[in-house]
Design a protein that fits this description.
Blueprint (H helix, E strand, L loop, with lengths): L2 H11 L5 E2 L1 H15 L6 E3 L2 E3 L1 H12 L3 E8 L7 E8 L1 H13 L1 H17 L3 H16 L7 H10 L7 H13 L13
Antiparallel strand pairs: 1-5, 2-3, 4-5
Helix pairs in contact: 1-3, 1-4, 1-5, 2-5, 2-6, 4-5, 6-8
């Protein structure tokens, strides 16, 4: 399956309420990429792992009329206004998703199961962002596991200064609920 097809399934999984936020979409696809070896490369970014391929595929799907992008603006603390994005499938997008369900039934089911598991264990985008940051830190660290304090210091090298020890514990909890084993975790269990 292509990355665009996978994005249709992820967004379609959220139903009529839609998928709130670009960051949430990036993190959901990041976790899928770790489990299913998707064609998306990620690099550390402000809110955690970021993929230009995911952004480009999303933009293409919006331009082709398969996904609706709803943008709400709000006042923010910085010099720019804030924007909140919500993504839903259009009628054409739902038709393509149903065709994918029939043509790629097994893969469609695996993607749906992973998304359901992630959404049930990570109610907030912040939880997804912190857990994904922990996995990136694990990949970039020379050590198998580190203390929460050491992880926070490593995170600062990426400009991630907003991770507390509690965030580390919550992120590890999410990773465990999502099925990561102790050897895959970036932190010493305590």
């Amino acid at each position: 399956m292509t990355l665009g097809q996978i994005l249709l399934i992820v967004i379609g999984h959220t139903g009529e309420k839609g998928l709130p936020g670009r960051t949430r979409l990036q993190k959901l696809v990041y976790f899928l990429s770790k489990r299913m070896h998707l064609p998306a490369s990620y690099s550390p970014y402000y809110y955690g792992p970021y993929s230009e391929q995911v952004s480009a595929s999303l933009e293409s799907l919006v331009e082709r009329g398969l996904i609706d992008e709803n943008v709400n603006t709000f006042e923010s603390d910085g010099p720019f206004e804030g924007k909140k994005y919500t993504y839903t499938l259009t009628e054409d997008g739902r038709a393509v998703m149903e065709a994918l369900r029939r043509k790629h039934a097994d893969e469609f089911q695996r993607i749906s199961e992973h998304i359901s598991a992630l959404l049930s264990n990570a109610p907030s985008t912040r939880a997804l962002a912190v857990a994904s940051k922990l996995l990136i830190l694990r990949e970039r660290s020379r050590e198998h596991a580190a203390s929460p304090g050491k992880l926070r210091r490593l995170a600062e090298k990426f400009g991630w200064r907003d991770i507390s020890n509690q965030d580390v514990r919550d992120g590890v909890d999410l990773l465990v609920k999502y099925g990561h084993t102790a050897t895959e975790l970036p932190v010493e269990l305590y």
